[in-house]
Amino acid sequence: MRRRSNRSCTYAVALDSKAGNGEVQELANYLSSLHLAECEVLVLDDCGVAAFDDRDRILRWVAQHVAVLPHQRFSDGSVDVLQAATELAATDKLIIASTDARYTAADVRSICELLDRHEVVEPEEYVDPLPWWGGFDAGRILLHRGVDQTAHVRSTFALRRTSFRPLRGFDERPVGNCARRLLMQGAEVHEAHNVFVRREPRPFGAWLRERPREASADLATPMKSALFLAAVPLLAVLAVIGGTEMAGGYAGVMAFASIMLAVRGRAGAGKFFPMRACLFAPLWICERSLSLYWALFDRLRIMTSASDVAVGSLKSEGGARSAKRGLSA
Asked: For residues 11 and 35, is the Cβ–Cβ distance under 8 A?
Protein backbone atom coordinates (compact mmCIF):
# COMPACT_ATOMS: atom_id res chain seq x y z
CA MET A 1 0.00 0.00 0.00
CA ARG A 2 1.37 3.41 -0.97
CA ARG A 3 2.17 5.67 1.97
CA ARG A 4 0.43 9.04 2.06
CA SER A 5 1.80 12.46 2.94
CA ASN A 6 0.27 15.77 3.94
CA ARG A 7 2.94 17.60 1.94
CA SER A 8 1.89 19.71 -1.06
CA CYS A 9 4.15 17.83 -3.49
CA THR A 10 7.20 15.61 -3.86
CA TYR A 11 10.43 17.15 -5.10
CA ALA A 12 12.57 14.44 -6.74
CA VAL A 13 16.15 14.81 -7.92
CA ALA A 14 18.58 12.22 -9.32
CA LEU A 15 22.16 12.42 -8.04
CA ASP A 16 24.92 11.52 -10.47
CA SER A 17 27.30 8.78 -9.34
CA LYS A 18 30.24 11.04 -10.33
CA ALA A 19 29.16 13.96 -8.13
CA GLY A 20 31.81 15.01 -5.61
CA ASN A 21 31.30 15.68 -1.91
CA GLY A 22 31.24 19.42 -2.57
CA GLU A 23 28.37 19.04 -5.04
CA VAL A 24 26.47 16.77 -2.62
CA GLN A 25 26.88 19.28 0.22
CA GLU A 26 25.76 22.16 -1.99
CA LEU A 27 22.69 20.16 -3.05
CA ALA A 28 21.88 19.38 0.60
CA ASN A 29 22.09 23.08 1.49
CA TYR A 30 19.60 23.89 -1.25
CA LEU A 31 17.22 21.03 -0.42
CA SER A 32 17.08 22.18 3.21
CA SER A 33 15.35 25.36 2.01
CA LEU A 34 12.45 23.42 0.44
CA HIS A 35 10.81 22.84 3.84
CA LEU A 36 9.45 26.38 3.39
CA ALA A 37 7.51 25.10 0.39
CA GLU A 38 6.18 22.08 2.36
CA CYS A 39 7.74 19.61 -0.05
CA GLU A 40 8.57 15.98 0.46
CA VAL A 41 12.15 15.71 -0.84
CA LEU A 42 13.38 12.57 -2.58
CA VAL A 43 16.99 12.04 -3.70
CA LEU A 44 17.56 9.12 -6.11
CA ASP A 45 21.19 8.05 -5.88
CA ASP A 46 23.02 6.14 -8.62
CA CYS A 47 26.19 5.09 -6.82
CA GLY A 48 27.87 2.18 -5.05
CA VAL A 49 27.28 1.06 -1.45
CA ALA A 50 30.32 2.80 0.05
CA ALA A 51 29.59 6.12 -1.65
CA PHE A 52 25.91 5.81 -0.73
CA ASP A 53 26.71 5.60 2.98
CA ASP A 54 28.98 8.65 2.79
CA ARG A 55 26.32 10.65 0.97
CA ASP A 56 23.59 9.45 3.30
CA ARG A 57 25.33 11.09 6.25
CA ILE A 58 24.89 14.42 4.44
CA LEU A 59 21.49 13.96 2.80
CA ARG A 60 19.41 12.05 5.35
CA TRP A 61 18.74 15.24 7.33
CA VAL A 62 17.15 17.04 4.36
CA ALA A 63 15.67 14.30 2.15
CA GLN A 64 14.60 10.71 1.75
CA HIS A 65 17.81 9.31 0.28
CA VAL A 66 17.23 6.10 -1.69
CA ALA A 67 19.31 3.92 -4.02
CA VAL A 68 18.12 3.35 -7.58
CA LEU A 69 16.81 -0.20 -8.13
CA PRO A 70 17.57 -2.29 -11.25
CA HIS A 71 14.03 -2.02 -12.65
CA GLN A 72 14.24 1.78 -12.36
CA ARG A 73 16.83 1.97 -15.12
CA PHE A 74 16.70 2.18 -18.90
CA SER A 75 18.14 -0.54 -21.09
CA ASP A 76 21.48 1.33 -21.27
CA GLY A 77 21.80 1.41 -17.47
CA SER A 78 20.94 5.11 -16.99
CA VAL A 79 18.42 6.09 -14.32
CA ASP A 80 14.73 6.31 -15.26
CA VAL A 81 13.96 9.22 -12.93
CA LEU A 82 10.31 9.32 -13.94
CA GLN A 83 9.73 5.64 -13.12
CA ALA A 84 11.59 5.83 -9.81
CA ALA A 85 9.96 9.06 -8.65
CA THR A 86 6.39 7.97 -9.40
CA GLU A 87 6.97 4.71 -7.54
CA LEU A 88 8.44 6.31 -4.42
CA ALA A 89 6.53 9.59 -4.12
CA ALA A 90 3.98 9.84 -1.31
CA THR A 91 2.07 12.70 -2.96
CA ASP A 92 0.05 13.01 -6.15
CA LYS A 93 1.98 16.05 -7.39
CA LEU A 94 5.64 15.63 -8.34
CA ILE A 95 8.36 18.07 -9.32
CA ILE A 96 11.28 16.34 -11.04
CA ALA A 97 14.45 18.38 -11.29
CA SER A 98 18.13 18.10 -12.06
CA THR A 99 20.71 18.90 -9.41
CA ASP A 100 21.26 22.41 -10.81
CA ALA A 101 17.60 23.55 -10.60
CA ARG A 102 16.90 26.06 -7.82
CA TYR A 103 13.21 26.46 -6.94
CA THR A 104 11.93 29.08 -4.54
CA ALA A 105 8.90 28.48 -2.32
CA ALA A 106 6.92 30.79 -4.64
CA ASP A 107 7.95 28.72 -7.68
CA VAL A 108 6.75 25.51 -5.99
CA ARG A 109 3.40 27.06 -5.07
CA SER A 110 2.92 28.32 -8.66
CA ILE A 111 3.67 24.87 -10.09
CA CYS A 112 1.31 23.14 -7.63
CA GLU A 113 -1.50 25.54 -8.56
CA LEU A 114 -0.93 24.81 -12.25
CA LEU A 115 -1.02 21.06 -11.56
CA ASP A 116 -4.56 21.52 -10.26
CA ARG A 117 -5.53 22.31 -13.87
CA HIS A 118 -2.95 20.44 -15.97
CA GLU A 119 -1.43 16.94 -16.00
CA VAL A 120 2.13 18.04 -16.82
CA VAL A 121 3.71 21.47 -16.37
CA GLU A 122 6.98 22.67 -17.94
CA PRO A 123 8.28 25.95 -16.48
CA GLU A 124 10.75 28.20 -18.24
CA GLU A 125 14.33 28.28 -16.96
CA TYR A 126 17.30 30.62 -16.86
CA VAL A 127 20.95 30.38 -15.78
CA ASP A 128 22.33 32.61 -13.03
CA PRO A 129 25.17 33.41 -12.42
CA LEU A 130 26.47 33.21 -15.98
CA PRO A 131 30.06 31.96 -16.45
CA TRP A 132 31.20 31.44 -20.02
CA TRP A 133 30.11 27.80 -20.14
CA GLY A 134 26.76 28.75 -18.58
CA GLY A 135 26.39 31.20 -21.45
CA PHE A 136 26.15 28.26 -23.86
CA ASP A 137 23.07 26.99 -22.00
CA ALA A 138 21.57 30.49 -21.94
CA GLY A 139 22.14 30.81 -25.70
CA ARG A 140 20.45 27.43 -26.26
CA ILE A 141 17.41 28.45 -24.22
CA LEU A 142 17.04 31.77 -26.06
CA LEU A 143 17.40 30.13 -29.47
CA HIS A 144 14.62 27.65 -28.71
CA ARG A 145 12.44 30.48 -27.44
CA GLY A 146 13.23 32.45 -30.59
CA VAL A 147 11.94 29.71 -32.88
CA ASP A 148 9.00 28.90 -30.55
CA GLN A 149 10.34 25.44 -29.92
CA THR A 150 10.58 23.45 -26.69
CA ALA A 151 14.12 22.39 -25.87
CA HIS A 152 14.84 18.66 -25.66
CA VAL A 153 16.95 19.22 -22.56
CA ARG A 154 15.05 20.78 -19.65
CA SER A 155 16.28 20.88 -16.08
CA THR A 156 12.84 20.42 -14.55
CA PHE A 157 9.15 19.69 -15.05
CA ALA A 158 6.19 18.69 -12.88
CA LEU A 159 3.38 16.16 -13.21
CA ARG A 160 0.44 14.53 -11.55
CA ARG A 161 1.38 10.92 -10.89
CA THR A 162 -1.70 9.62 -12.73
CA SER A 163 -0.36 11.14 -15.97
CA PHE A 164 2.48 8.59 -16.10
CA ARG A 165 1.27 5.69 -18.23
CA PRO A 166 4.33 3.65 -19.28
CA LEU A 167 4.45 2.15 -22.77
CA ARG A 168 6.15 -1.21 -23.14
CA GLY A 169 9.21 -1.03 -25.39
CA PHE A 170 9.14 2.76 -25.79
CA ASP A 171 9.91 3.36 -22.12
CA GLU A 172 12.94 1.11 -22.16
CA ARG A 173 14.97 3.77 -23.99
CA PRO A 174 16.19 7.06 -22.49
CA VAL A 175 14.77 10.28 -23.95
CA GLY A 176 16.07 13.81 -23.57
CA ASN A 177 12.87 15.50 -22.47
CA CYS A 178 10.74 13.50 -20.00
CA ALA A 179 7.77 15.83 -20.52
CA ARG A 180 7.83 14.90 -24.24
CA ARG A 181 7.78 11.26 -23.13
CA LEU A 182 4.60 11.92 -21.15
CA LEU A 183 3.12 13.70 -24.16
CA MET A 184 3.75 10.55 -26.24
CA GLN A 185 1.80 8.63 -23.59
CA GLY A 186 -1.20 10.91 -24.09
CA ALA A 187 -0.68 13.35 -21.21
CA GLU A 188 -1.62 17.01 -21.51
CA VAL A 189 1.52 19.17 -21.29
CA HIS A 190 1.26 22.83 -20.31
CA GLU A 191 4.20 25.19 -20.92
CA ALA A 192 4.24 27.68 -18.05
CA HIS A 193 5.71 30.72 -19.77
CA ASN A 194 5.21 32.91 -16.69
CA VAL A 195 7.16 30.70 -14.27
CA PHE A 196 10.96 30.97 -14.50
CA VAL A 197 13.07 28.54 -12.47
CA ARG A 198 16.71 29.44 -11.87
CA ARG A 199 19.51 27.04 -12.76
CA GLU A 200 22.90 27.08 -11.10
CA PRO A 201 25.75 26.74 -13.59
CA ARG A 202 27.33 23.33 -13.08
CA PRO A 203 31.04 22.98 -12.38
CA PHE A 204 32.93 23.05 -15.66
CA GLY A 205 33.91 19.37 -15.44
CA ALA A 206 30.31 18.27 -14.89
CA TRP A 207 29.12 20.54 -17.71
CA LEU A 208 31.70 19.04 -20.07
CA ARG A 209 30.67 15.47 -19.18
CA GLU A 210 27.08 16.29 -20.11
CA ARG A 211 27.87 17.44 -23.67
CA PRO A 212 27.48 14.07 -25.45
CA ARG A 213 24.47 13.03 -23.34
CA GLU A 214 22.59 16.25 -24.09
CA ALA A 215 23.54 16.07 -27.75
CA SER A 216 22.17 12.52 -27.91
CA ALA A 217 18.73 13.95 -27.12
CA ASP A 218 18.79 15.76 -30.47
CA LEU A 219 19.21 12.44 -32.28
CA ALA A 220 15.51 11.85 -31.61
CA THR A 221 14.81 14.55 -34.25
CA PRO A 222 16.71 13.52 -37.42
CA MET A 223 16.22 16.79 -39.32
CA LYS A 224 17.56 18.88 -36.45
CA SER A 225 20.50 16.50 -36.00
CA ALA A 226 21.30 16.66 -39.71
CA LEU A 227 21.43 20.47 -39.61
CA PHE A 228 23.83 20.46 -36.67
CA LEU A 229 26.00 17.70 -38.13
CA ALA A 230 26.30 19.60 -41.43
CA ALA A 231 27.29 22.95 -39.86
CA VAL A 232 31.03 22.38 -39.33
CA PRO A 233 31.68 20.18 -42.44
CA LEU A 234 29.91 22.73 -44.64
CA LEU A 235 32.13 25.48 -43.25
CA ALA A 236 35.21 23.39 -44.10
CA VAL A 237 33.94 22.63 -47.64
CA LEU A 238 33.24 26.32 -48.31
CA ALA A 239 36.72 27.20 -47.07
CA VAL A 240 38.25 24.71 -49.53
CA ILE A 241 36.07 25.71 -52.48
CA GLY A 242 35.72 29.47 -52.01
CA GLY A 243 38.46 30.34 -49.57
CA THR A 244 38.24 32.18 -46.30
CA GLU A 245 35.97 34.89 -47.71
CA MET A 246 33.17 32.46 -48.61
CA ALA A 247 33.57 30.53 -45.36
CA GLY A 248 33.62 33.79 -43.38
CA GLY A 249 30.48 34.98 -45.15
CA TYR A 250 28.67 31.74 -44.32
CA ALA A 251 29.78 31.92 -40.68
CA GLY A 252 28.76 35.58 -40.47
CA VAL A 253 25.26 34.91 -41.80
CA MET A 254 24.79 31.98 -39.41
CA ALA A 255 26.03 34.02 -36.45
CA PHE A 256 23.84 37.03 -37.30
CA ALA A 257 20.71 34.89 -37.82
CA SER A 258 21.20 32.97 -34.57
CA ILE A 259 21.81 36.15 -32.56
CA MET A 260 18.65 37.74 -34.00
CA LEU A 261 16.65 34.62 -33.05
CA ALA A 262 18.11 34.77 -29.55
CA VAL A 263 17.16 38.46 -29.27
CA ARG A 264 13.63 37.48 -30.31
CA GLY A 265 13.63 34.74 -27.68
CA ARG A 266 14.71 37.25 -25.03
CA ALA A 267 11.48 39.22 -25.52
CA GLY A 268 9.43 38.83 -22.37
CA ALA A 269 12.39 37.32 -20.49
CA GLY A 270 14.83 40.26 -20.36
CA LYS A 271 14.63 40.23 -16.55
CA PHE A 272 16.28 36.79 -16.51
CA PHE A 273 18.68 36.97 -19.48
CA PRO A 274 21.29 39.72 -19.93
CA MET A 275 21.77 40.93 -23.49
CA ARG A 276 25.21 39.31 -23.66
CA ALA A 277 23.50 35.88 -23.41
CA CYS A 278 22.33 36.37 -27.02
CA LEU A 279 25.95 36.42 -28.20
CA PHE A 280 26.37 32.81 -27.07
CA ALA A 281 23.73 31.52 -29.52
CA PRO A 282 26.13 30.96 -32.49
CA LEU A 283 28.74 29.51 -30.12
CA TRP A 284 26.18 27.00 -28.85
CA ILE A 285 25.44 25.90 -32.43
CA CYS A 286 29.14 25.12 -32.94
CA GLU A 287 29.33 23.33 -29.60
CA ARG A 288 26.24 21.23 -30.33
CA SER A 289 27.57 20.27 -33.78
CA LEU A 290 30.84 19.01 -32.27
CA SER A 291 29.03 17.33 -29.35
CA LEU A 292 26.82 15.40 -31.77
CA TYR A 293 29.92 13.90 -33.37
CA TRP A 294 31.16 13.10 -29.87
CA ALA A 295 27.85 11.37 -29.05
CA LEU A 296 27.90 9.37 -32.29
CA PHE A 297 31.48 8.28 -31.59
CA ASP A 298 30.46 7.12 -28.10
CA ARG A 299 27.55 5.12 -29.54
CA LEU A 300 29.82 3.53 -32.14
CA ARG A 301 32.37 2.67 -29.45
CA ILE A 302 29.70 1.04 -27.27
CA MET A 303 28.30 -0.91 -30.24
CA THR A 304 31.80 -2.08 -31.21
CA SER A 305 32.54 -3.20 -27.65
CA ALA A 306 29.24 -5.10 -27.47
CA SER A 307 29.98 -6.74 -30.83
CA ASP A 308 33.46 -7.79 -29.67
CA VAL A 309 32.00 -9.32 -26.51
CA ALA A 310 29.40 -11.22 -28.54
CA VAL A 311 32.03 -12.53 -30.97
CA GLY A 312 34.26 -13.58 -28.09
CA SER A 313 31.37 -15.39 -26.45
CA LEU A 314 30.57 -17.26 -29.68
CA LYS A 315 34.22 -18.26 -30.09
CA SER A 316 34.34 -19.54 -26.51
CA GLU A 317 31.20 -21.59 -27.05
CA GLY A 318 32.61 -22.95 -30.31
CA GLY A 319 35.88 -23.89 -28.60
CA ALA A 320 34.04 -25.62 -25.77
CA ARG A 321 31.97 -27.64 -28.24
CA SER A 322 35.08 -28.67 -30.21
CA ALA A 323 36.82 -29.77 -27.02
CA LYS A 324 33.76 -31.77 -26.01
CA ARG A 325 33.63 -33.51 -29.38
CA GLY A 326 37.36 -34.29 -29.09
CA LEU A 327 36.86 -35.89 -25.68
CA SER A 328 33.92 -37.89 -26.99
CA ALA A 329 36.04 -39.19 -29.89
From this structure: no
